[in-house]
Design goal:
elongated, about 120 residues, 4 helices, mainly alpha, PGBD
Length: about 120
């Protein structure tokens, strides 16, 4: 095996000026729009496993996905009367990209801040 000397620079390449970067710039490096969309889609699919389709307030972009998932998993649904009266699941509506980014940001922040 032949050793080849390293000729690159010893630094991490990021698509922004690190001297003027904000925490959100680093956050967006790891949490892309594709990751957010995946989380939103999976969250909505999970909701379809617990509620009948007519109980979900759905956006037009999720309508077809929810219908497809409903037909595939119809036997796994809980009847609405098995969900507690005070459950927020009865008022389920699809999450949005800004909501999901906020939730993930809060979760990350909670891991950084020490509370007594």
């Amino acid at each position: 095996m032949r050793n080849t000397p390293f000729t690159g620079s010893e630094k991490i390449e990021v698509p922004f000026d690190t001297l003027n970067a904000l925490p959100i710039d680093y956050y967006n490096l790891f949490i892309s729009d594709e990751v957010i969309e995946l989380l939103i889609n999976e969250t909505s699919k999970n909701a379809t496993q617990y509620l009948p389709l007519n109980q979900i307030k759905r956006s037009s972009r999720m309508k077809e996905l929810l219908i497809n998932e409903t037909s595939k998993n119809a036997t796994q649904y809980l009847p609405l009367n098995q969900i507690k009266r005070s459950s927020r699941m009865k008022d389920w509506k699809d999450t949005t990209c800004p909501e999901m980014r906020t939730v993930l940001g809060i979760r990350l922040w909670m891991g950084c801040v020490r509370m007594p």
